[in-house]
Inverse folding.
């Protein structure tokens, strides 16, 4: 018994599987019949087709018995899905519009549940087929996360009609706009020309609402009905046929409308006349609706015209139907001829507008009239009307679109005309006209053969892209522009144009997903299309990995085009990390260093070097990224040596780019030390210096930048290299006054300023090259504002560098030429002025150091003049009286000037220096306190110097500096000055009362370095805080 059952089970199981497959097929076919949400139901059909394929495969290799439960569950969900599909097939369009959100949610819910059912299929039912299990799991995941979004314009319409928005509906303009949107959404593009179609839709909606018996549905029906009735009143739309509306003097020769042709109920020409048993004739749909209302209201079935009780049986009135058809054909042909006559006869725009409106009525009624319009030669005539008034242009555009709908031949004929006129309408400000042009171009773009023609029409793609980014409130226009562009994307030439106008996505999609030849073309386009920073960012996010993948292709053309595209994207610094993540460094290094028969062309190598320079200079995190199979990094010795070899053994194009890479390495605090080591080990210092004389500006400028960055780490080596021959030094100095951009001049100044200050041979060499006079001239130029606008951002580093160079000359004042130079140009007042100018921290630091150097020289230059000889009786020795000397410097006890002796007092430098003592930058404070300390040297009147500091308000800040202990150098200098200030008895008495001074000196005495301790001991003795005989430290 059991064996017999086992023999029967497989066929039964297979039948169950086949039943599910057939049911899936039915649902897929039904999805094609829905009248709304076509895209969503097509996507749902695709998912169902995937399920069907899974179960077809499982018939052969699966355990059908274990699949029984999932199949039953899937059948139940399919029943619900079919119910939803049927609903979207039979319900009216307006009803489905009101329920778009519910439909979308129900479709998502059933799809998600089916996904969970698929996920529950056990692996054992697949009999170990891992590949089949993977297919099922992927499909289940896709269905569980599936989304079926409804259109934004539909959702906005539904939201507007909600009860809480009744205040919005009180505005007549809003009412008309909403009604127009509803009409367009359900497929009635021009409500004013076809109110009958909307009335039919309303009748269908009423039927659906009565079936649903839903309160909200009934409310919505009432709202839309009221909107339509008000619109009819405002637009004076009587309930009559379109033929009755078409009244024009030329129509007098048309056959009259016979009363027998008109339905008594609809008052319109009958399309499907039927006769009752009493001989009365009506439109079939109208009389059937009358019968239905009688039944629903419990009334007897009566003839509307006679009141006789009749049966619901009707007979087609074929003879009348044929008569109406023949009358219609004759009149439509005559009306078509009248349309042509009006258009070609130069009639007024009002007549032409009537003709175009009548043409639209004819074409909507009968597709054959489109063919007639074409054979009558109306299409080029209508295109020619786009030069007429605004009203005529709008009607011409809508007429052309209506003619082109679902007719490829007419599309081609419109495309053969001058599309520039359509595009011109696209650019006009009038909303209705622009809308008509967008709709027409969308319709034409459905023809693949016209896509190129539209793209070649100047401005078409530019304006369509502009509409998308215009934040227009007309959702329908934006939607049609988007659809038109989507159709135009099918042509590669259009894709390039879109990219040029800011629509990159089509190009990037082809670049990432297309076949190799398409990817090459798209990469080439991406490399030449002008891109904004935002475009470059989006392109890198979408295509970086694809482009890097192309760098590894065996196709040399693919590699070259990808490299050019990466060159464009790498110019945006923020793309650096993304390109590194995509793996760009290794293929770039391969292209640069490979030799032999496989080496890349020179131009390609130069591009590789440029991309690498951009990435390294972007601030990206490249320091820890391996660049080859050996695990080397960009700053590894082998790689740096290879870079240096390339610089010396390739052309200037590659050399400049590789130097830019080295600039990037030198700009990194993490890598500059290793870079300096590797340059030293390669003995490349002199070679790099020689590039200062390169005739190519980019090579020379980059070399200067690199040497400037290295000068902080190998200043003496660079100074030695520059002394080998003065040509490079002269080149650097001449750069300061060249016609080159100020950026180059600023870098050259920074390099020279970083060279060792105490290298007197280098200082004399600069003097021989005329550097001081040139520097002073350029500083004066900056002061007078002789600067190009593009150079303004480089003024500060340029000025800072030049001041740094001038400081070195104050370190060599023992040289008579330099001493004369400092006196001639009044260096003391110059640096005092620079200190007061409030420039960069480096500039203020340099100015203060220069003042210290100059002031140290003052005691040697300040001299006491001989007293004047006595006269008269005072010549006798016994009567001789000393003549007091007037105008001597109180600190230097001689004749001083700022120009001749560099006296800080006469240069009025004390106040600017004192103001620097509370600067946030410790180095500036150190420089300022160093300059002020020259007033307390052994070679000056220390007591008077202390008093001058007191008068300038400098003593209190010095005490604060000693107490704060910001740096050890500052504390030592402050303690040195305090010790000397305390030698002034009056000042010592004033200071001794401050307990903080005592605490600071004790702290220096206990914790300072050896020199600070000795100075603190002396200062405490002045304050009588420790005995004079203590002798804790030896005298210094």
């Amino acid at each position: 018994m059991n064996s017999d059952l086992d023999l029967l089970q497989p066929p039964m199981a297979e039948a169950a599987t086949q039943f599910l497959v057939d049911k899936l097929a039915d649902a897929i076919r039904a999805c094609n019949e829905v009248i709304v949400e076509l895209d969503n139901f097509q996507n749902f059909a695709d998912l169902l087709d995937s399920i069907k394929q899974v179960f077809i495969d499982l018939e052969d290799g699966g355990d059908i018995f274990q699949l029984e439960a999932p199949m039953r569950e899937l059948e139940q969900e399919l029943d619900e899905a079919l119910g939803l599909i049927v609903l979207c097939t039979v319900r009216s369009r307006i009803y489905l519009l009101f329920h778009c959100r519910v439909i979308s949610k129900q479709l998502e819910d059933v799809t998600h549940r089916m996904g969970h059912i698929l996920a529950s299929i056990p692996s054992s039912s697949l009999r170990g087929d891992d590949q089949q299990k993977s297919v099922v799991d992927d499909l289940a995941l896709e269905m569980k996360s599936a989304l079926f979004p409804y259109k934004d314009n539909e959702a906005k319409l539904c939201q507007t009609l909600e009860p809480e928005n009744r205040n919005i509906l009180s505005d007549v303009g809003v009412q008309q706009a909403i009604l127009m949107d509803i009409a367009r959404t359900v497929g009635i593009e021009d409500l004013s020309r076809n109110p009958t179609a909307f009335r039919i839709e309303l009748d269908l909606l009423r039927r659906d609402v009565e079936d649903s018996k839903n309160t909200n549905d009934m409310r919505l029906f009432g709202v839309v009905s009221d909107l339509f009735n008000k619109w009819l009143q405002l637009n004076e739309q009587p309930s009559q046929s379109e033929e009755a509306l078409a009244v024009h003097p030329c129509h007098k020769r048309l056959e009259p409308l016979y009363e027998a042709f008109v339905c008594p109920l609809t008052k319109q020409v009958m399309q499907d006349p039927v006769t009752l048993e009493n001989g009365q004739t009506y439109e079939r749909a109208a009389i059937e609706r009358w019968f239905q209302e009688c039944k629903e209201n419990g009334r007897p079935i009566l003839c509307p015209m006679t009141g006789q009780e009749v049966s619901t049986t009707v007979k087609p009135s074929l003879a009348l139907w044929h008569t109406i058809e023949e009358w219609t054909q004759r009149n439509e042909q005559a009306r078509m001829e009248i349309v042509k006559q009006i258009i070609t006869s130069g009639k007024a725009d009002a007549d032409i507008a009537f003709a175009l409106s009548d043409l639209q009525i004819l074409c909507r009624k009968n597709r054959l009239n489109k063919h007639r319009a074409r054979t009558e030669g109306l299409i080029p005539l209508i295109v020619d009307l786009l030069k007429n008034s605004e009203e005529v242009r709008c009607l011409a555009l809508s007429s052309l679109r209506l003619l082109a709908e679902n007719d490829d031949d007419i599309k081609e004929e419109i495309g053969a005309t001058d599309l520039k006129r359509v595009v011109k309408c696209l650019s006009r400000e009038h909303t209705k006209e622009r809308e008509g042009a967008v709709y027409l171009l969308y319709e034409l773009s459905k023809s693949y053969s016209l896509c190129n023609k539209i793209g070649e029409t100047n401005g078409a793609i530019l304006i369509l892209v502009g509409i998308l980014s215009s934040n227009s409130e007309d959702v329908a226009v934006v939607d049609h522009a988007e659809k038109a562009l989507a159709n135009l994307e099918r042509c590669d030439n259009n894709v390039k144009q879109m990219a040029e106008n800011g629509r990159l996505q089509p190009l990037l999609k082809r670049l990432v997903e297309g076949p190799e030849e398409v990817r090459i073309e798209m990469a080439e386009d991406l490399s030449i299309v002008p891109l904004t920073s935002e475009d470059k960012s989006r392109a890198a996010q979408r295509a970086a990995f694809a482009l890097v993948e192309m760098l590894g292709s065996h196709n040399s053309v693919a590699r070259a085009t990808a490299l050019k595209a990466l060159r464009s994207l790498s110019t945006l610094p923020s793309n650096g990390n993304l390109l590194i993540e995509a793996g760009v460094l290794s293929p770039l290094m391969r292209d640069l260093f490979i030799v032999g028969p496989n080496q890349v062309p020179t131009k390609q190598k130069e591009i590789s070097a440029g991309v690498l320079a951009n990435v390294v200079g972007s601030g990206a995190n490249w320091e820890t990224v391996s660049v080859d199979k050996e695990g080397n990094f960009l700053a590894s010795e082998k790689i740096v040596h290879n870079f240096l070899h390339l610089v010396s053994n390739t052309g200037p194009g590659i050399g400049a780019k590789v130097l830019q890479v080295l600039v990037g390495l030198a700009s990194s605090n993490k890598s500059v030390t290793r870079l300096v080591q590797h340059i030293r080990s390669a003995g490349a210092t002199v070679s790099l210096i020689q590039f200062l004389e390169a005739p190519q500006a980019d090579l020379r400028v980059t070399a200067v930048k690199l040497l400037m960055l290295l000068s902080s780490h190998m200043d003496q080596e660079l100074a030695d290299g520059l002394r080998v021959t003065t040509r490079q030094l002269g080149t650097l100095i001449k750069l300061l006054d060249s016609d080159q951009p100020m950026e180059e001049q600023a870098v050259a100044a920074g390099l020279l300023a970083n060279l060792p200050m105490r290298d007197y041979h280098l200082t004399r060499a600069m003097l021989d090259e005329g550097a001081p006079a040139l520097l002073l001239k350029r500083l004066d130029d900056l002061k007078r504002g002789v600067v190009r606008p593009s150079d303004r951002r480089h003024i500060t580093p340029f000025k800072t560098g030049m001041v740094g160079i001038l400081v070195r000359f104050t370190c060599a004042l023992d040289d008579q030429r330099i001493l004369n130079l400092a006196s001639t140009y009044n260096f003391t007042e110059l640096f005092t002025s620079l200190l007061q100018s409030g420039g960069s921290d480096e500039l203020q630091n340099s100015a203060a150091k220069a003042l210290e150097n100059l002031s140290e020289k003052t005691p040697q230059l300040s001299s006491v003049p001989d007293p004047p000889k006595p006269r008269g009786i005072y010549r006798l020795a016994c009567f001789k009286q000393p003549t007091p000397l007037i105008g001597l410097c109180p600190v230097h006890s001689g004749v001083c000037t700022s120009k001749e002796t560099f006296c800080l007092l006469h240069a009025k430098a004390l106040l600017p220096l004192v103001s620097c003592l509370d600067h946030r930058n410790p180095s500036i404070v150190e420089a300022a306190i160093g300059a002020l300390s020259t007033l307390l040297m052994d070679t000056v009147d220390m007591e008077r110097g202390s008093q001058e500091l007191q008068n300038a308000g400098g003593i209190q800040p010095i005490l604060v500096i000693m107490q704060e202990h910001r740096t050890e150098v500052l504390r030592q200098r402050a303690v040195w000055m305090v010790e000397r200030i305390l030698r002034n008895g009056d000042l010592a008495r004033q200071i001794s009362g401050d307990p903080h001074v005592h605490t600071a000196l004790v702290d220096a005495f206990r914790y300072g370095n050896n020199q600070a301790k000795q100075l603190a001991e002396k200062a405490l003795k002045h304050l009588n805080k420790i005995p004079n005989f203590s002798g804790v430290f030896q005298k210094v």
About this structure: The domain at 850-861+891-1023 is CATH 1.25.10.10 (Leucine-rich Repeat Variant). Residues 641 and 682 are 7 Å apart (CA to CA).
